[in-house]
């Protein structure tokens, strides 16, 4: 919400435009408190003419998702304490958060739901954690992480072809590609895709080589499968896949055999970092110029790393693993590597992805057992923090960043933890009864007075329709 905090144009918004902005399910805000501060800033620009709109605007904030401190801050603000409607609304949110929903009337419960006071906003990006190794076998679970809610939950679209671990994944166009891996016997050369539009799995052309521990990247519209292990030896082979032709083509091999490496695409070049050649861990980094089909060496890492995760974030490449608990920074275009910086969690065979400004190190193996922990490195503050853990402890998983808002919907978010399933069921039953009563009343009113009537449907608590404020009709004064 940098624009809201600094922009002068934001202060000129009409109440109608501000209402539409703040009530948008896809508003890109990490904390609902930011919206309250933006609303106050807008009000303070013209307090005399805007004070009477706060009672309507406060309904756009998802109050049940706010922390106790934020609720206290809002409820004690004079804008709220001096407004009876605001006090009543905040009181309803308090009852929801602290478990006193039985003291909320059906009409207020209905209104709180219609305004989505407890519904998370749909994120612009989510992390998908696919497959992995857990409890002595491969897992087919796919979990989705919502950064705003700090929640993982299982996505209900497992691959019917079965589980796999030590595989690789990538999202291209509207499809999630899952390639290679194994379940304890021979590595796979098979490729499966999950269509994010249709929510269906299908087979794609198989790779020319069986590969587990492989690296994968997308460059110039092609998908590249690099290195890995075929069950007998480590590979240096490379092949690329054309989505249009559904065909894999073998291309020039890497110089080093390497499994357990990681590939990162930067400016039409693929960097393959570290790995294991069958005898030693590697510190080398090979670079493929995709248009020239030519491999060269980039600056090596300062330490050998296998089971490595790597990301490109804000101009630098960062590599992670537990055997050498450091972060390596390598600025692309600079002919020397930078020194190692900062500590990292002690986890190997992990999954690493960047959701700027944070880098997520997800799951893995700590030297004794698989883990479900998620550690987050903030690139700006150079600090590590913990995030919500996976629901299943696992290593050898693979993560993808889904950034296309067209395919991120309520299937990728869920209710926050403060509402257990039984409580949601009870609330839903009350809402259903309230809907029936409202529909009956609306039908009766329509017969006696044929004026416009709006009935809000709440077939699921996180799938409500947009609600226009009745006080913001077209003929209302909104400036």
TrEMBL record:
Keyword Repeat set for record: yes
Residue intervals of the BACK domain: 1-75
Entry-linked InterPro entries: BACK (IPR011705), Kelch-typ_b-propeller (IPR015915), Kelch_1 (IPR006652)
Pfam families xrefs: BACK, Kelch_1, Kelch_KLHDC2_KLHL20_DRC7
Region (Disordered): 454-479
Protein name per its UniProtKB record: BACK domain-containing protein
Stored SUPFAM superfamilies: Kelch motif
Keywords for this protein: Kelch repeat, Repeat
Organism whose genome encodes this protein: Romanomermis culicivorax
Biased composition (Acidic residues): 466-479
Taxonomic placement: Eukaryota, Metazoa, Ecdysozoa, Nematoda, Enoplea
């Amino acid at each position: 919400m940098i624009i809201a905090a600094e922009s002068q144009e934001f202060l000129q918004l009409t109440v109608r435009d501000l209402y539409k902005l703040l009530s948008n399910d896809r508003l890109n805000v990490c904390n609902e408190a930011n919206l309250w501060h933006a609303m106050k800033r807008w009000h303070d620009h013209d307090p005399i003419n805007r004070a009477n709109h706060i009672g309507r605007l406060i309904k756009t904030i998802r109050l049940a998702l706010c922390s106790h401190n934020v609720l206290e801050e809002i409820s004690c603000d004079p804008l709220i304490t001096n407004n009876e409607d605001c006090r009543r609304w905040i009181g309803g949110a308090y009852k929801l958060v602290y478990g006193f929903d039985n003291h909320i009337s059906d009409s207020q419960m209905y209104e709180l739901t219609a305004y989505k006071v407890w519904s998370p906003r749909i994120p612009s990006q989510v992390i998908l954690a696919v497959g992995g190794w857990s409890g002595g076998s491969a897992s087919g679970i796919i979990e989705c992480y919502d950064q705003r809610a700090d929640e993982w939950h299982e996505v209900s679209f497992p691959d019917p072809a079965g589980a796999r671990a030590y595989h690789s994944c990538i999202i291209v166009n509207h499809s999630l590609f899952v390639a290679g891996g194994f379940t304890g016997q021979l590595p796979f050369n098979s490729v499966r895709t999950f269509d994010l539009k249709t929510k269906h799995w299908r087979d794609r052309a198989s790779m020319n080589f069986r590969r587990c521990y492989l690296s994968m990247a997308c460059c110039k519209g092609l998908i590249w499968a690099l290195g890995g292990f075929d069950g007998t030896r480590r590979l240096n082979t490379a092949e690329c896949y054309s989505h249009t032709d559904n065909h894999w083509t073998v291309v020039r091999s890497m110089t080093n055999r390497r499994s357990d490496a990681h590939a990162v695409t930067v400016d039409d070049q693929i960097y393959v970092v570290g790995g294991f050649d069958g005898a030693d861990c590697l510190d080398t980094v090979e670079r493929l110029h995709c248009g020239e089909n030519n491999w060269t060496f980039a600056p090596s890492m300062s330490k050998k790393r296998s089971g490595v995760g790597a990301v490109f974030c804000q101009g630098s490449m960062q590599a992670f693993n537990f055997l050498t608990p450091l972060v390596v920074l390598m600025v692309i275009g600079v002919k020397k590597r930078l020194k190692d910086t900062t500590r990292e969690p002690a986890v190997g065979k992990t999954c690493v992805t960047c959701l700027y400004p944070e880098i997520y190190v997800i799951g893995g193996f700590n030297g004794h057992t698989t883990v479900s922990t998620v550690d987050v490195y903030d690139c700006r503050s150079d600090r590590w923090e913990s995030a919500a853990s996976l629901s299943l402890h696992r290593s050898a998983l693979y993560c993808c960043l889904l950034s296309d808002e067209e395919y991120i919907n309520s299937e990728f978010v869920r209710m926050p933890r403060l509402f257990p399933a039984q409580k949601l069921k009870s609330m839903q039953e009350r809402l259903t009864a309230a809907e029936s009563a409202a529909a009956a009343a609306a039908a009766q009113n329509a017969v006696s007075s044929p004026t416009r009537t709006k009935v809000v449907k709440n077939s699921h608590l996180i799938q409500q329709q947009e609600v226009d404020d009745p006080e913001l009709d077209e003929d209302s004064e909104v400036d």
